[in-house]
Amino acid sequence: MTGHYSRQHLLAIAPLQRHEIESLLDLGNEYVDLNRQIQKKRDTLRGRTLINLFFEPSTRTQSSFELAGKRLGADVMNMSVAQSSVRKGETLIDTATTLNAMHPDIIVIRHQDSGAVALLADKVTCSVINAGDGAHEHPTQALLDALTIRRRMGRIEGLTVTIAGDVMHSRVARSNVHLLNKLGARVRLVAPRTLMPAGAGEWGAEIFNDMRHAITGADIVMMLRLQSERMTGSFLPSQREYFHFYGLDREKLALAKPGAFVMHPGPMNRGVEIDSAIADDIDRSLIHEQVEMGVAVRMAVLEALARQLPNDERKS
Question: Alpha helices, DSSP H only, in the chain?
Answer without folding.
Answer: 18-35, 60-71, 92-100, 116-123, 139-153, 171-182, 211-215, 239-246, 250-253, 276-279, 287-306
